[in-house]
Structure to design on (244 residues):
């Protein structure tokens, strides 16, 4: 009788053990202040993503890769989640998207001496505008042949070109621009100004490969975790902890 009682006790104990969080592989490309191992919690985007996934019952393992490798690996199912991605029609064929968790304001950075103001795309005709490789900018902007575009790998390159008068404008995510101006332009920040009107605003998402049968569950749980951290104030605290 004692033996049976002991066995029942063990079985009941096992039933009430806390479930171990499921590990999930998240990939992102370096993109300060959103994704950067040198920043607190891996950057603003990664802090939000990790917190929402943890709230949803996952243990996220973050890996930083070059953008092309990160995107290709996710589409092939090597990674469970792309941690910071914009939505395009092309990408939607291979990726399932979450609810947006941040907004990216895509702005124009001009030389402080410039009097130019932007109101519509035709205002940019004949101008030389610095853009970054692998960015999914506004399609009409990218397809307009009368807007001359110079591609660079780092925003700092374009900022220096704007400062020296070699570019009319640089297009940038505003948080990235603020970060680069503070960290790399030092006392020269006064040489730049942001135009009043944005090129566009983009939503930032996590995405999971269509080919992975678990992707729909992951995305749904992330959405639930995101809603939970917004409701209890955690999300706003994260935003407030970053100055960019």
């Amino acid at each position: 009788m004692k033996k049976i009682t002991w066995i029942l006790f063990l079985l009941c104990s096992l039933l009430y053990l806390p479930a171990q969080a499921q590990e999930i592989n998240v990939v992102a490309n370096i993109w300060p202040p959103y994704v950067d191992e040198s920043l607190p919690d891996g950057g603003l985007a990664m802090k939000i993503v990790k917190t929402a996934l943890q709230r949803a019952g996952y243990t996220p393992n973050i890996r930083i890769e070059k953008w092309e490798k990160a995107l290709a690996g996710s589409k092939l199912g090597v990674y469970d989640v792309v941690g910071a991605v914009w939505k395009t029609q092309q990408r939607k064929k291979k990726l399932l998207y979450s609810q947006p968790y941040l907004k990216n304001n895509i702005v124009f950075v001009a030389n402080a001496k410039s009097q130019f103001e932007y109101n519509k795309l035709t205002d940019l005709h004949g101008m030389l505008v610095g853009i970054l490789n692998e960015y999914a900018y506004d399609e009409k902007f990218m397809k307009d042949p009368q807007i001359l575009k110079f591609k660079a790998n780092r925003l700092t390159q374009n900022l220096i070109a704007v400062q020296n008068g070699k570019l009319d404008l640089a297009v940038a995510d505003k948080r990235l621009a603020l970060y680069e101006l503070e960290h790399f332009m030092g006392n020269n920040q006064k040489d730049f100004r942001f135009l009043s009107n944005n090129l566009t605003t983009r939503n930032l998402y996590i995405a999971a490969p269509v080919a992975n049968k678990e992707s729909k569950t992951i995305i749904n749980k992330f959405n639930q975790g995101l809603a939970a951290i917004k409701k209890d104030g955690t999300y706003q605290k994260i935003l407030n902890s970053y100055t960019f």
Q: What stands out?
A: The chain has two domains: 21-102+202-240, 104-201. The mean pLDDT is 90.
